[in-house]
Each structure stands twice: as structure tokens, then as C-alpha cells.
Design a protein that fits this description.
This protein is α+β, with helices and mostly antiparallel strands. It has one domain. The strands form two sheets. Strands 1-5-4 form a three-stranded antiparallel sheet. The protein is globular.
């Protein structure tokens, strides 16, 4: 029997980026670090992909719900390796800044009301194709299903879903009442 394929946090990010989100979003792109982080959280906590993961993202309850320093580190590694583009662009709201300003060891975004958007590079697409060949089909289907399910959701709605389904990760949240609409 062969060794299981390593499937770490950086691989989860590439798998999510490369998965077909349907017509609501563009394949190969995810808008916002907060959205990316919540999708990795859901992949790890709500899909069978968790059985394939050989590294946990080590999510913990933090100021803005589930937080993983490993997601931020993986993004930096993927960008440095030329697998993804990571851009900061102007945004209509500051929702993507919830965590960036509080991330341990992470510089704040360059300007207020900005978002970090991610896209696979050609090298990243090649890596995605190789990853899909090596991972169990159920893991690949889980990522694609997750992307399609949440594609096009406003960020606030996605955060609300995570908060409602995983209350144990909101115990330290400073935005919990705002997100859940509680007084």
C-alpha cells in the first residue's frame, strides 16, 4: 500500500482556488483573505476532505471567529513560490480587514478598505492539476462542492454561517453580536 498523499494547508488553498465554483465566481480566484480562511475552515470542519489532511490548520477561537495563523503563512509561502498572486485592491467595505489588523505577526493591509485577492498563476494551475491526480476523488469533490455551495455569498453571510454552525469558535469574537444581529 502506498503512502497517503501529503495534503497540508497550502494544498487546501490551492485545491480551493482551483476548484470550479460554478457561474457565481471565477475559477482560480478567491476574493479576500477572510473568505479564503473561512473556506479552509469549512473544508477542514465540514467535509470529508479532513480525512485526507495530513496537517491541521489549527483554527482557534479568536477576535473574529475561527482564526488560523497557518493559513496566512501558507498564503505567503504560495506567493513566494510563484503559485498564487496575492493582490491588495480597494474594497467597498472593511469586512476583509476584520482579521488582517489583528493577525499575529502580520502587517495590516496597505490601505483602509482594501482586500487581498488570490489567483492561481500558471504554475499554480499545474500544481492544482498534479494535486487533483494525487488526492482521493472524494477530497476533490468535497472542495468543489464547498466552492459551489458558498460561491457568490457576501462575506458577511459566509461569516454568519460559520458563526451559526461553529459557535465554539466565536467565544472570543469581538464582532459576534454584530454578525449574529444580537443586541
Amino acid at each position: 500500500m502506498s503512502e497517503p498523499t501529503e495534503f497540508e494547508v497550502d494544498d487546501a488553498i490551492v485545491l480551493l482556488l482551483g476548484s470550479d465554483p460554478g457561474p457565481a465566481e471565477r475559477r482560480g480566484e478567491i476574493r479576500g483573505i477572510t473568505r479564503l480562511e473561512k473556506l479552509v475552515f469549512l473544508l477542514e470542519h465540514e467535509t470529508e476532505a479532513q480525512r485526507s489532511m495530513t496537517e491541521s490548520a489549527d483554527f482557534e477561537a479568536y477576535n473574529f471567529g475561527p482564526f488560523s495563523q497557518k493559513v496566512y503563512q501558507a498564503v505567503d509561502v504560495l506567493r513566494s513560490g510563484g503559485l498564487i498572486k496575492d493582490t491588495a485592491e480597494s474594497s467597498a467595505s472593511n469586512e476583509d480587514q476584520y482579521e488582517v489588523s489583528m493577525a499575529v505577526g502580520n502587517d495590516a493591509a496597505p490601505v483602509p478598505y482594501s482586500t487581498r485577492d488570490f489567483a492561481l498563476t500558471p504554475l499554480g494551475r499545474e500544481y492544482y492539476d498534479a494535486l487533483v491526480r494525487d488526492l482521493p476523488a472524494g477530497t476533490v469533490r468535497a472542495a468543489e462542492s464547498l466552492r459551489k455551495r458558498f460561491a457568490g455569498w457576501p462575506l458577511r453571510r459566509l461569516i454568519r454561517y460559520v458563526y451559526q454552525q461553529h459557535d465554539e469558535y466565536t467565544t472570543k469574537s469581538v464582532i459576534r453580536d454584530d454578525i449574529l444581529g444580537r443586541p
